[in-house]
Amino acid sequence: MAQFGNLNPEEKELEDIAGRILQNQEEAQKLQAQLISHKLLAFFKEKITFKTKEVSYEDFIKEVYK
Questions:
Q1: What whole-number distance in Å separates Cα of residue 29 and Cα of residue 22?
Q2: Which one, out of 9, 23, 43, 61, has a CA that is 20 to 30 A from the CA of 49?
Q3: d(CA 3, CA 64)
Q4: Phi, psi at residue 64, to the nearest 5°?
Q5: Helix (DSSP H) and strand (DSSP E) numbers for the chain
């Protein structure tokens, strides 16, 4: 809203805009896909930790071809 010069929109105005956007099925599906992607990314960032270690080239090759 700030890019259109409205720095402090009212709740009613925001609800009207959201309602118009969600009436368009294609736009609603895009928003749903973005929300799911965002939530999945946040979930996996929280749950997955990567451990690194330095190994020699020879040890790396042995690990890869196990």
A1: 9
A2: 61
A3: 51
A4: -65, -40
A5: 3, 0
pTM of the model: 0.48
Residues in the chain: 66
Q: Give the whole-angstrom CA distance, residue 48 versus residue 54.
A: 20
pLDDT digits (tens, 9 = 90+) for 4-47: 777 788 889 889 988 888 888 888 899 899 999 999 998 888 87
Burial 26-59 (b: 16+ CB within 10 A, else e): eeeeeeeeeeeeeeeeeeeeeeeeeeeeeeeeee
Sequence-separated contacts (24+) of 30-35 with Cβ below 8 Å: none
